[in-house]
Design goal:
Blueprint (H helix, E strand, L loop, with lengths): L25 H30 L16 H23 L3 H20 L5 H20 L11
């Protein structure tokens, strides 16, 4: 019997599951589920922000001279549409759908950019959403628990 040239992680090793598939970091795997919840909740809040912006122009601060100036109603529609997409993607991530992980990175990136442009209107909420989006992007990009193409030989 020949010995393997390099040790392979056993079933009790944190780098693999019992089936010989690399599971990645438990923090990243838990972070992915948390990212799904955050996207879902951020989507609900986005819908509420959007409805508030569409319903009345007096809800958010008025900006006189700003490069990315839109009407509050326009920002309302942007947040409403992004919010609905975030809810769908968050649900998909919680359901374990691969398409949702990919789309989650894309939509979190778009939401991050939109909230950067929205900073003067609601700075605190925009910064909170940007931080959430950065975490979501990290969690979805680093989780390898569902990557079945990386097997340990």
């Amino acid at each position: 019997m020949s010995q393997p040239s390099s040790p392979t992680p056993g079933p009790s090793s944190p780098a693999s599951s019992g089936s010989g598939v690399r599971t990645g970091s438990p923090w990243a795997a838990g972070g992915t589920m948390f990212a799904g919840v955050l996207l879902f909740v951020d989507g609900v809040l986005g819908v509420l922000k959007g409805i508030a912006g569409i319903a009345t122009n007096d809800v958010y601060a008025r900006i006189n001279d700003y490069v990315f100036k839109f009407s509050v109603s326009s920002w309302g529609w942007i947040h409403l549409v992004l919010g609905v997409i975030l809810i769908i993607v968050g649900w998909g991530i919680l359901s374990g759908r691969t398409w949702a992980r990919v789309l989650g990175v894309v939509i979190a990136s778009l939401t991050l950019i939109a909230n950067f442009m929205w900073l003067p209107y609601q700075p605190v909420w925009a910064v909170v959403t940007i931080a959430i989006d950065i975490f979501v992007i990290w969690a979805l990009c680093t989780d390898r628990s569902r990557d079945r193409s990386r097997t340990v030989v």
